[in-house]
Fold:
Amino acid sequence: MNQSYGTVSVIGLGYIGLPTAAVLASRGVEVVGVDVNATAVSEINEGRAHFFEPELDAMVRGTVQEGRLRAVLQPEPADAFIIAVPTPLTADRAPDLSYVDAAGVSIAPVLKAGDLIILESTSPVGTLERLAATLAAARPDLAFPADGSDASDILMAYCPERIIPGRMMTELVENDRIVGGLTKAATTAASALYGIFVRGKIVPTDARTAEMVKLTENAYRDVNIAFANELSMVCDGLDIDAWEVIDLANHHPRVNILQPGPGVGGHCIAVDPWFIVHAAGETAPLMRTAREVNDRKPDFVVDKIMALASPGDRIACLGLAYKADTDDLRESPAIEIVEALCRKHDGEVMLVEPNIAQLPPRLSLPNAKLIAMEEAVNNADVLALLVDHREFKAIEPEVIRSKKSIDTRGLWRAYSRQNRAND
Ligand code: SAJ
Structure:
């Protein structure tokens, strides 16, 4: 049993909250997870994770069976609250903080003096201060940190998550963490909480800096991927293999170019830079342009496929997920591409996604169906590789060479080069 915190409540049991809740519980902390999704709550209480992430299910099962982790629909009193709710974009690309506001309103009634509140959601600078103001309005009987002085009843800190899907359970423990309190006492208390399971460094700062650090990390990656994507379109126009250019340029000791792809997906990198652009306006043209370059890439891929395919051709689209070896279709550029192909192409579109059993009903793909890889590859006139899943590496080079093909990930570049040499 960990002595530092009696009970920790995790508000939001999604991609970040559930792994965090499970790992804390696995270290002996009593964890109560809170979510508005009744299905997720009952699945967790039955000992199952409601989404796939390596090692997560086993940890949820173990901690639920031991009685350390349980899920509820309404917040209960706890010693610390970790808020990990979504912060999406509004239609005009402004941050939508309604879930953070709602989390604040929901925990306000159960707060007591001495409690620690940590916000992990990716947030525009100033969000933790906004949360403090929301809570102060709901609980005038408690003192919240307002001016940096340590004289408050409630400790509040911002601590951004940085775990990558596919390696979450490892990165949760190994990665360094940035902890920014509204007060020094909050930074110290939150650092102690992360010290329960983090083996990486826990680096203290203030809340606004920590908020900006999180946005900076994802904007940095977005800008670097945009460079690779723009380069791939330039190389395509010049009939040069972009992946070879990148490989060779990366032999330079101070050059490290990322990989081009069909666009940038997921819930973070394609969203978070807008938080900076929204706050910074004209002082962030580079980050805005990077977003636009990455957002244009799926259209470029669609145009390439349409130019290659003849009317009536059967097109096999390999991969629907937002990146390799995951079943996560959120904000996937591959989905954007197949939706456009289904609208524009007058032949069959065959979809292959080895990590899902059926297409989500929300997708409207009139002339497309999900089929097994072998069948799609054998029957296709055109192969469009959209995700570098491990299964697609095993497709025979002769099969690829015998078809018209587009490879957005550079997985088959050796064969297509040979193709070109044989032309
Ligand atoms: N991508 C490329 N080329 C690359 C790398 C990625 O096209 O060289 C594409 C991927 O295919 C994918 C998208 O970018 O569509 C994003 O994938 P990713 O693996 O770069 O990142 P995410 O979205 O899975 O997770 C990111 C991570 N942030 C950084 O690496 C700075 C993760 O650490 C964060 O915790 C996560 O965002 C988050 O939740 O903010």
Observations:
- The CA atoms of residues 122 and 160 lie 6 Å apart.
